[in-house]
Write a structure and sequence with these properties.
With about 300 residues, this protein is of the alpha+beta class. It is about 30% helix and about 30% strand. The strands form 3 sheets. A 6-stranded antiparallel sheet has the order 6-5-16-13-8-9, with no helix packed on it. The chain has a 6-stranded antiparallel sheet with strand order 12-11-10-7-14-15, covered by helices on one side.
Length: about 300
């Protein structure tokens, strides 16, 4: 009988010190449960591992050992096996949503339990996202922060929440808030200056932008902020913090399966907290479009996770 195994896609920034030690601990925990492991530290190794898992039914699951960026990289390899997470990042929004842990022993227990939930994804072009897409001011901050983290040999330096302070301030003074035109499900048009498309309700710092978003309903939650300018952006942020924004004029909330976006100037995009390209300003350009992919990926979740469907 072929031995069951688990693939681990590890963040290269965690390849030394405690990060490597935690991956090695997970491998030992899985070994004690009779499971073999394959560890991929580079994008090339990850790509080969995902391809191998697709052709091998003895692969039990794939583990993203890192933060939300590592999860996004694994999801964009379009794995056909369930995924789970060994949490190690700044926000860990995906892992926190599903109650995933930092402890290798607890992750091994989740894998042994084998409880799987199917969730939706968003897709734009060739890129997929599991948390959210941001268009406009939010994406400008993400792009500035990403540029400040870029180190030698293409490796990203570690970050923290405080590292966002300078990008937020610089974006506040420099971003022009060009108009966005959104067509929702080919039937309704909305106009704003900043927009978010959520699959899961989590956002950095726990801000409740889309508190009712569900990853298993076959839809995405579109939040549009109409008015321009840094002071309006700060006002909107305060309303979000208080949980009042969805009841305010100038804020639109729609549950959608498709959104097409065009802009008066080129506007940055972020996907799951990483730069995701731009909405082109050319009037002849094809609109930037997001579609929902219902039940596109299986997630191996711990016993403590209670799905939205079960709560409902």
């Amino acid at each position: 009988m072929t031995r069951a195994w688990v693939g681990i896609a590890a963040n290269a920034n965690s390849g030394r010190g405690r990060g490597r030690q935690r991956v090695e601990r997970l491998a030992r925990c899985l070994e004690r449960r009779g499971l073999g492991t394959t560890v991929a530290w580079s994008p090339e190794e990850r790509r080969a591992m995902v391809a191998e898992s697709a052709d091998d039914p003895s692969c039990r699951c794939l583990v993203a050992a890192g933060g939300d960026g590592t999860v996004a990289s694994l999801i964009n390899e379009q794995p056909s096996r369930p995924i789970t997470v060994l949490r190690a990042g700044t926000e860990n929004l995906f892992a926190r949503h599903f109650h995933m842990k930092q402890s290798p022993e607890e992750v091994a227990e989740t894998i042994a339990l084998g409880r799987v939930e199917a969730i939706d994804l968003g897709q734009t072009g060739e890129r997929r996202f599991v948390l959210m897409a941001g268009i406009g001011f939010d994406a400008e901050v993400v792009c500035r922060h990403h540029a400040s983290r870029m180190g030698k040999a293409g490796l990203m330096r570690p970050t923290s929440r405080s590292a966002y302070v300078e990008p937020v301030l610089r974006a506040s003074f420099g971003y022009k808030f060009p108009a966005l035109r959104m067509v929702v499900d080919d039937r309704e048009e909305l106009v704003g200056t900043t927009a978010f498309i959520f699959n899961l309700p989590r956002y950095a710092l726990g801000l409740p932008f889309a508190p009712t978003a569900r990853g298993d309903d076959g839809l995405l939650d579109l939040i549009v902020f109409r008015d321009a300018g840094p002071f309006r952006a700060l006002h909107y942020l305060w309303m979000v913090f208080r949980g009042l924004h969805l009841r305010r004029d100038g804020v639109y909330h729609r549950r959608v399966s498709r959104v097409s976006v065009s802009a008066t100037e080129s506007v940055p995009v972020q996907l799951d907290g990483d730069p995701g390209g731009v909405v082109e300003a050319d009037r002849l350009a094809v609109p930037w479009t997001v579609d929902v992919l219902p039940s596109a990926i299986a997630v191996m979740v711990p016993k403590s996770y209670e799905s939205a469907a079960a709560i409902a």
